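CORE FACILITY INTAKE
Project code: CF-77B
Contact: R.S. (postdoc)
Sample description: multi-component assembly, two entities in total
Requested service: structural model of the whole complex
Turnaround: standard
Below are the sequence entries exactly as provided by the requester. Do not edit them.
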Amino acid sequence: MSAETVPAATAARLRPTVAQTFAAMMAREIRVMRKNFVSTFIRVLLQPLLFVFVFAYVLPKIGAGAFAGAQGGPTFSTILVPGLVASSIIMQGMMAVIFPLMMELSWQRSITDRALAPLPIPLLAVEKIAAAGLQALIGGLLVFPAVLLIHAQGQAPDVHVANWPMFVLVLVASSLLAASGGLLLGTIIDPQKIQVLFALVLLPMTMLGCVYYPWSALHSIRWLQIAVLVNPMVYASEGLRAALTPQVGHMPAWAFLSVLVGGTALLAWAAMRKFTSRVLT
Amino acid sequence: MTGSAGLAVRTEALAKTYTGPRGQVPAVCGIDLAVRHGEFFGLLGPNGAGKSTTIGMLTTLVVPTAGRAEVCGLDVVRHPVEVKRRIGMASQNNTLDSDLSTFENLEFRGRYFGLSAAAARRRAEELLDQFGLTDRRSANPFELSGGQAKRLMICRALVHHPEVLFLDEPTAGLDPQTRVNLWDLLRELQKAGQTIMLTTHYMEEAEQMCDRVAVVDHGKVLASGTVAELKNSAGADTVITVTYDGAAPAGVGTLRARPGVSKVEITGGQVRVFAREPRGVLGELVSTAATAGVAVSDAAQLPPSLETAFLNLTGREYRE
């Protein structure tokens, strides 16, 4: 009975710093992630797993030679490794922020729970980006061994980390880019139109994201090579391609790095503003 | 500005106009309130009166369009984080964190407010025990009954010992037992010194719980004061009703001239007297009948209620 009978005014005033509150919120995200680990990451893993299984194992085995790569060129699995890791990062980053946000901003507005914590609202947006970015990174790292190891004989991907700092930078920047973009979309889109988001945004992003082919190979379809530049996934795929399979033609580093880093800053800024205006009415 | 430092809540011409697809919608149109520390203050009004918007502004999540509001002497617009450190709020909706268990909802709330992990768990245990939720500790908030969810929301608002506790319609939609139990809990909190500001459209709740009440409608304060003051200021009368066997005796009409009587309604055998000063009225109605040789079949005297005061102030048209 001791604590609750102390009059509120005389109870020791808690003075959490903004950093403490931020850390506590990240601790919450990690607790939730740990609880839902299997269901969350099976979702991330399944699509790339099936993809490498079919395209790097089944098709070469049954003699669909077109997928074995051109004579003397890289194997298809070599092209797929950076692409599938990139697409997992982007997908996971976006979904990790959009799904909870749809619940939090609609119906009961459970965002109020976090919004009443002693943290400026824009920092709550940053926290959401950081948490979803972390999930994206974990998703990408989990996909890595799977796409590295599943392949038919003679179809092994030729992958090695050519440039560690660039590899880490591309992984982290892609994760944060996806999370920021997800937060922006989640605050703009009407929750009832979430299906549309998948059909109109996420699927074309993957198919046209240089996941299954390098960007440089698109030179023979010039208009498409230029058109796909609006797709952020292209830069994540190409960035990982440069870091992991530099022998495959890839976009120059200045191009993907400036988009990944600059785009993250821009999208995060826009998402913070939009999120704040949705939370504070 | 006199004494504002000593106030838990103070607003000055506080207003909020929403700009939406239907143009400008005023929700709160200049509200002045002063709530003292330790007080149980009620914001009473019909649906759509602007109560929740007012609470929203005081809890920093709704940005005022005019006027000012201070909580514990801190401006809610200029120092939202400082204000949030000092307040707890249980909103009308279930805003519990559905990714966390009942226990974790309290644990993490404590950690957001700077408690260490161990201290947050201790505080969570303590509150679950105090609010009778210990056996629901691992339940998901969606598995809780309405009353349990409401109690958990109040617990959660109390984790960090807030200086001011805001409760937006705390008993809306609860069954009578749950409501009465919740009232008991709130009374205990207030006895322990907790400042509480609640919104309600239940007269009974305001009458039972609140030290002072402000009646709001159409975004304005219509009257404020203690419940007793409101009853008087709103011209609420005691209603004395007598039913006679047969027609009412002619003599009762003279009651109209009696000081303190505001109205006499005679419909067939029933007489209703509205009086500020009801003493002796019932006796006279009965003795008049005796003199005229008419029998009294029923008699009742209803004290002035906050409800009659409230309806006098806000009118009777339907809302929403």
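Facility notes:
- Chain B has ten helices and 14 strands.
- Chain B has a mean pLDDT of 86.
Invoice: internal transfer
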